[in-house]
């Protein structure tokens, strides 16, 4: 086996290991939400990790593949936060209070979040 091909295989093994490691946070539960972060889940009861953001971050649009999915969240940051029905902070707004863990956002807010902010409430 050539030196080059051996290195290529080693690189592929590392990449495969990294992919496996990265798959774990997707199953992150409530207790895995890091201090200072706001964490989001696709399903009720903190199941199906969507994403998380550090507290203090300003308004952002949610990626199209995660938009209209948010069903539960945990604000483990020292900031109040908010999510919005539409992009760019438009439409209905829901505050996610600092320290609040919500297992289900309720029928009215479910699967609607399209933008969010981690620096203040509504
Ligand atoms: Ca959902």
TrEMBL record:
The lineage of its organism: Bacteria, Bacillati, Actinomycetota, Actinomycetes, Micrococcales. Pfam families: Inhibitor_I36. It comes from Falsarthrobacter nasiphocae. The keyword Transport does not apply. InterPro entries: G_crystallin-like. Gene3D superfamilies: Crystallins. The keyword Signal applies. Keywords: Signal. Residues 1-23 form the signal peptide. This is Peptidase inhibitor family I36.
